[in-house]
Amino acid sequence: LLDLLIFLPVLAAVVLVAVPRVPDGVARVVLVVVTGVELVLSLGLWLAYAPRAGLTGDFAFERTLVWIPSVDSGYRVGVDGLSLPMLLLTTGLFFCCALYAWRERLRPRTFAALLLFLETACLGVFASLDLILFFVFFDLSIVGMYFVIAGWGHGQAARSALKFFLYTFLGSLALLVGFLALYAGSDPHTFDMVKLAQEPPLQGRPVAGGLALLAIFIGLAVKTPTVPFHTWLPPAHTDAPAVGSAILAGVLLKLGTYGFVRIALPMLPDAWRTWAVVAVVIGAVGVLYGALVALAQADLKRMIAYTSVAHMGYVLLAVGAAGLLGGTDAEARTVAVSGAVTQMVSHGLVTGALFLLAGVLQDRAGSYDLAAYGGLATRAPRFAALFGVAAFASLGLPGLSGFLAEFQVLAGSLGSAPVGVVVALLGLLVTAALFLVAMGRLLLGPAGRLTGAVSDLRPSELAAIVPLLALSLLIGVLPRPLLDVVEPSARAVVELVSR
Amino acid sequence: VNEDPLALLPELILTLGAVAVLMLGSFLPRDRQWVARLVTAAVLLGSAVAATVALLGPDRLVFDDTFAVDGLTGTARLVCALSGLLVLGLMSEELHGDRREAEHYVLLLFTVLGAQLLAAGNDLSLLAVAYLLASVPLYALAGAARDRPGTEAALKTYLLGAFLGIAMITGIVLLSGLVGGTSYALLADLEPAARPVVAVGTVALLAGLAFKGGFVPGHFWVPDAAEGARTGAAALLTTVPKVGGLLAAYRVLDAIPREVVDWPLLVAVLSAVTMTLGNLAAFGQQSVRRLLGWSSVSQAGYLLMAVAVAGRTDLALPALALYLAAYAVTNVGAFAVPAALPAATRIEHYRGLAAGRPWLALSLLVLLLGLVGTPPTAVFVGKVTVFAAALDGGFAWLVVVAAVNTVASLFYYLRWIAPAFDRTGAAQAAPPAVRPIAALSAVTSSGASVLLGIAAGAVLAIDPRLLA
User: Does the pTM exceed 0.90?
Assistant: First the structure.
């Protein structure tokens, strides 16, 4: 089932490319149907997982095929409470983006194929239980995204795409070096993630372990992105198409944070505990810095991009706090890690929705300039309502998923990193302020220069954006189904890192 | 003892085939040269089949232990013969109707034969002979276009090959003089007392192999040959001699005791210098073939990483074999793209290729990203195993250098890819003249490089001796 989930999109993509003269309309239908089937498949996986694993945080649906036996690397996949929410987020977001892309006019066939290819790459990363396989999918996601930005972006798309590619490729190479260090440090040598987590390599070798962690940290930090590796993100988002931005923010950034939880913490516990404070500092600084820079943006998409930097800061703060053993207990650290996962899901949903909404403005009026709009509340009430919900979710209003996630992160980190939490709280305030300001400028006040060009949301856009926000609301009100799956695995990670 | 001519079957097929093609070429009328083409293809295929059969048999040394039949030799035989076959496709199209068509095929066969002998030789004197046999066809092929760049390429190749060849023979004389014989097995008797002479001998010997392998300091001819020779010949010159040279280096260095002379460090330094130089030089290139030439220099640097850890880790030989096979198919494929578009010699000519020739552009993308080492292509698997081998052998710094270089290399490959996928330039239609066989070769190689990457484990499993 898992193999089908991973490879169905790319198979569909190959068919789309290989069969000559597929009409655009058929390509659209294929995209929506395949991503829809993917969503159903991943829901099935979710429903099958809970009883099967008995909620102990174990892996399920594991599968192993030999690939490169001489270095003990293989096709190893499986899911647990950390990867399952990510898989579901991926399929859900891709489905919504497929609906949104219904109206894509520029080479829809190639676009659909590329999106499907990207979906396989993202699902593959989340399902991988082998470092090399993880890296393979990780790199493929970069290649896919490069073409989405370069081919369907606007403004200086080629330049931004190149910057994105070079930056994240550099990160992925650092990641590869780190993986090889893990391989060389393990005995017997292996790339098997489960084995590496059970018997972490490089224990008791602080220098080698520290260097391996440094390489992995840089690799993941570029992808996440955290301050100071975030400079590729704003141009990439600004010039990417709406769907590209939504997937970039919603799924691709999670590849980095997911890597922290899945690889850095369990496989290098010694080194992580030693250097966790660095993660806390970078996370807290990221929250505040991202929020402050976002506040100063005049461009809606750049603003959302910088709030992403801030939101990813919470995740880093949480995983850092999970490594600080002083002044806290395992329960608090579990809350922090499960908050990190919840934040990933929440950010994926909410920021995905925000970018799709920003895409509507670009579609209608061709600009993201905040100053050019105003009074959209009367002109486009549905747009205004959804934007309001998304903004409140993003700033952490109780009842929506963002609040739950940030509350968990801050509560879980308070004991071990009180200063970091205080700094992050300041960032939270700034985020609230900046979203209120942005809403004021966009939705209220007198009509701006381009307000007249904005017509309200079309059905396909509504169908894409409403489910994302509804899910955010659902998680905010009824968090138990999600947390029941996440918490056992988060507890397992915390145990692994405290060894 | 043990003089079984059948052990040399792949080489014998090539030798007899080359003679036959030479005769055919002289007697056939110009419009019947396709017979020579067909015979060449059959010879290469036959050699590859014979090599596969030999690979399934046991390891052995034949003809007074001068010639090794083992996994390393098998790799060289298979990779060289199959690359030769791919190149033949490019050449036959490029040379169609040329007066010297059959002669090219003879040179192709001798290049393949020389590379195989280099790798299989287990004796210093055989190494010297193989060097000459492998070099002479290079000079001729480099200059076969008989224009100004071709002449320069031939001259450079010849001067460098002759000079480094003499250095290599000097090294052979020194080493064999010390141990009183030419067999590799005797090199184990080298004693620390004679360390200075051994060091000089090893360095001199390595100089000749540097010419074949196209690594520093013997790399100068590679970019010139890549640009000056005809495209098919360029693909051959940057692939097959490299296979022979690197495998020969692996075998002979592994025989020299590390305690006497620290050749692993020397090779590691050469590797770092080669990949860095190749990448830096490729940055500014506008000519696509010159760019590929420099890229093949940098690839030799990555390949040397596996040579540096020869004998230190079980992973070294499988890593080298896999990377060489991956490199060969990817590099020949990458040359097939310019071969398919003879009018497009510079990067800017590729603007808008994706709009006019989507399949060719897609192959170019896969092949160039393959050369970078993007998963899941074959070079990626090769790179990972080579990196792992180097780490295992204690060269962590070299892995970091190689990783940094890989990122740097991405830049110049993207300089070529980006215009090809630039939609705004689509108005300038893609170059009209497309050679179908070369285009097909490019598509096939790109597919093969992905397949080889996915099936890497299965490929290694063909020869259990290559498995760690």
Answer: no
Q: How far apart are CA B246 and CA B252, in angstroms?
A: 10
Distance CA A145, CA A169 (A): 12
DSSP state of B408: H
Cβ-defined contact of A69 to B387 (cutoff 8 Å): no
Q: Could you give the ipTM of this predicted complex?
A: 0.78
Q: Which of B397, B407, B465 to mutate to probe the A interface, most A CBs <10 Å?
A: B407
Run of H or E residues at B181: none
Tokens of residue A488, six digits: 């056992």
Helix A381-395 vs helix A418-443: crossing angle, to nearest 10: 170
Q: How far apart are CA B270 and CA B324, in angstroms?
A: 18
Cβ neighbours of residue A438 closer than 8 Å, sequence gap 6 or more: A300, A303, A370, A391
Question: Letter for the amino acid at B239?
Answer: T
In the block, tokens 């705004």 appear at: B424
Reported as a single tens digit per residue, the pLDDT across B437-456 is 888 888 888 888 888 888 87
Radius of gyration, alpha carbons of chain A: 21
pLDDT 10s digits, A17-62: 888 777 888 888 888 899 999 999 998 888 888 665 555 667 878 8
Asked if B385 lies within 8 A of A177 by C-beta distance, the reply is no
All residues of chain A having their beta carbon less than 8 Å from the beta carbon of residue B410 are 165-166, 169
Helix runs in A78-192, H state only? 83-100, 108-127, 131-152, 157-185
DSSP track, B93-143: HHTTT-TTHHHHHHHHHHHHHHHHHHHHB-BHHHHHHHHHHHHHHHHHHHH
A203-211: long-range contacts, CB 8 A cutoff, minimum separation 24 = A203/A269, A203/A270, A204/A270, A206/A270, A206/A271, A206/A274, A208/A181, A209/A185, A209/A268, A209/A270, A209/A271, A210/A271, A210/A274, A210/A275, A211/A181
> Residue A479, SS3?
coil
CB contact under 8 A, B388 and A166: no
Q: Tokens 């060389």, residue?
A: A184
Distances (CA, A) of B11 to B36, B55, B269, B381: 19, 14, 34, 29
Question: What CA–CA distance (Å, rounded) separates A257 from A316?
Answer: 7
The verdict on B194 touching A (C-beta cutoff 8 Å) is: no
Q: Under a CB-based contact definition with an 8 Å cutoff, are residues B274 and B145 in contact?
A: no
Token output for B81: 């013969």
Q: What is the model's pLDDT at position A234?
A: 87
Location of structure tokens 């093949």: B296
Written as one letter, the residue type at B214 is G
Best residue in B312, B322, B384, B446 to probe A by mutation, most A CBs within 10 Å?
B384
Nearest Cα neighbor of B111 from B245, B295, B221 is: B245
